[in-house]
Structure formats: structure tokens, C-alpha cells
Amino acid sequence: MALLPRHSLLLLMLAMAVQASAPPPLQRNFYAASCPRAEAIVRRVVRRRAALDRSVLPAMIRLHFHDCFVRAHLPSPSLPFAEALSAFRNIGLSLLDLTALLGSHTMGFCHCGLILDRLYSFNGTGRSDPTMDAGLLATLRDRCPPHTVTPQNESRDAIVPMNLVAPLGPFGLDNSFFPTVLAGRAVLQFDQELTSSSMARRIAAMFAAQPRNFQKQFARSMVKLGSVNVLTGKQGEVRLNCRRDNGTII
Q1: Is 195 annotated as belonging to a binding site?
Q2: 3-class DSSP state of 121
Q3: Given phi > 0 = left and psi -120 to 50 = alpha, else beta, which region is 152?
């Protein structure tokens, strides 16, 4: 019997450890009777739209994430890593899932209002986050002046890429988030706190070294996330405005 590479063995052990508590998967071809081509139609429309506008891809991942953490369960970017992990475990996801899903932070943009404290007054000290890479600090200060509009008015808030050195740019998904974090160059403090966990650091190192492992686990974790608190039949509603319940629409 051939021995598995050490990184692959770690992934296998973690996957087996959380398998028993994993939520049941969604059913493929659920609409086979009512709309036989539903999945193919969705796939075709998404691919066609993404070919015209690549920003659709990180937007859809964000939508999936927010939808599954519906009604005040979404961890804040300012939440300590341990508390965010607890929030994930409360819905049946593991450290492996959290680490893999954070890999999507190589896509999209971050509002400057979310990181001003790291740049100018970390924890109210009047100084920058001492753990932040000096080169990253200089770049972000250049792009995010101290009087940047805060997230309360995000439509006018300046933005920066979530990963300034992503090879595929802000609209491509690869494993480049992990070497960035391991090098101490994460834009969000929450992302950088991934290295505060020795196990998360080992998982990040595995994903950094083996992109295929990341791709496979990211897909598995997205499916698990989509299986959280699934509503069926007449439960729930299809929102006319995704920002609020239909009953509160004016």
C-alpha cells in the first residue's frame, strides 16, 4: 500500500474527524421532475454572465456565504478567530471548512473602513497594528487615507483588493490566499489571525503547497455550507429584496 504524502494525510485525517458531524448534503437533481434542466440552465447562465463580468464570481460566493449564515449568525470581520470558529462549529462546520472557505478571500475587494483601525489606531492605541507587514502597511495607507468614509456609507468608501498579489487578479480563485497569510500580509486582521491556530496554520501550509487539495476541499466545504439549515416545502420565502424579509418591504 502506497503511503500518502504528509499534507494529503493531514487532510484525510481532518476530513474523517468531522465526517460524523457533517450536515446531510443537498440532493442532486432535486428538480428533476418539476424542472429537469434546472441545474444545467443555472450553470450555463452563470458561465455566460461571468464571461461578460468577472466580478460576478466573488459576488456569488459572498451571496452563498451570507445566505447560509442568515439572520445575525454571520461572523463579523472584527471577530476574534476563536469566536468565528465557534460560530462555524455551531452550524456543523469545522476548522478545515473555515480555513478552506477563507481561501476565497483572495477574490474581491475590501472596504477601507474595515481596516482603518489596523492602519492608524489599532485597538485605540493611535498606532498601526504591530503585526502587519511594513510593506503592506505602506501600500494600504496609500490607498486608504485616514479620513476614508466608514462602512456606514459603503457606497462612497474606498476599496482595496483582498489579496494585492493574487496571480489571477481580484476575480480569480486560487490558493494564493494561503502563502499571503503565512507571510503576514493579510489585509483583514481576521484573516491574519488564522495563523494564531497551530492546526489552522498547518492546514494553510498544506493548501499553499498543494493547490489541488485546496480546490477539492473548497468545493466540499461550499457544499457543506449550502447544507446548513436548508428549508423545504413551504418553509421560508424567496426574497424579493435579498436585504430584508418580504414582510418588511415598503
Answers
A1: no
A2: coil
A3: alpha
- Amino acid (one-letter) located at 247: G
User: 174 labelled as ligand-binding?
Assistant: yes
The domains found in the chain, sorted by start residue, are 36-108+162-229 (1.10.420.10), 110-160 (no CATH)
Q: Taking a C-beta distance cutoff of 8 angstroms, is the pair 159, 109 a contact?
A: yes
Q: What cell was used for 142?
A: 496609500
Rounded-to-integer distance, Cα 247 and Cα 147, Å: 38
| Cα 148 → chain centroid | 24
Q: Taking Cα atoms as reference points, which of 101, 119, 114 lies closest to residue 157?
A: 114
Percent of the chain exceeding pLDDT 90 equals 45
Q: Within its chain, how far is the Cα of 102 from the centroid?
A: 4
pLDDT-derived band at 2 (thresholds 50, 70, 90) equals very low
Q: Are 241 and 248 in contact (CB under 8 A)?
A: no
Amino acid identity for residue 25 in this structure: P
The per-residue pLDDT for range 12-39, each reduced to its tens digit, is 556 555 544 455 556 778 888 888 898 8
**CA-angle at 153, arms to 150 and 154, nearest 5°:** 80
Task: Tell me, letter by letter, the H, E, C secondary structure of 15-29.
Answer: HHHHHCCCCCCCCCC
Smallest Cα–Cα separation from 164: which of 104, 107, 101? 107
Task: Pinpoint the alpha helices (H) of the chain.
Answer: 6-19, 38-52, 56-68, 81-90, 95-102, 116-120, 134-143, 177-182, 189-192, 198-209, 211-226
106 annotated as belonging to a binding site for a ligand? yes
Q: Is 75 annotated as a binding residue?
A: yes
Does the pLDDT of residue 118 top 50, yes or no? yes
Cβ atoms within 10 Å, residue 84? 20
